[in-house]
Amino acid sequence: MIYEMRQYRCVPGRLPALLKRFETVTLKLWEKHGIRQAGFFTTLIGESNQELTYFLAWESLAEREKKWGAFMTDPDWLDARAKSEADGQIVANIVSQLLTPTAFSTVK
User: Fold this and answer.
1) pTM for this predicted structure
2) Residue 79 gets which letter from DSSP?
3) Which residue from 58, 62, 63, 75 could staple onto 2, CB 3.0 to 4.6 Å apart?
């Protein structure tokens, strides 16, 4: 199993718009494309309280490439993203890391 950690740093004040987009649109589209989430988190204490961190679970890099590519080019996603950003940009920066569990990890 491969886990992808993605951190979205929002434009100040726009975290609620990002959370709404995930809750009302993105997760449904991920389900359509077979993308499995492994947890969502906001920052309680840290560098910025305008961040969303989440994890995705992939069987392989090939699965990620296929499913993520299909999602990113889905006309429903492109339309929903454009509509959600009608009031302005939401995300200022995205950091993504692909992680593999260690032999002693409780998450495999």
Assistant:
1) 0.92
2) H
3) 58
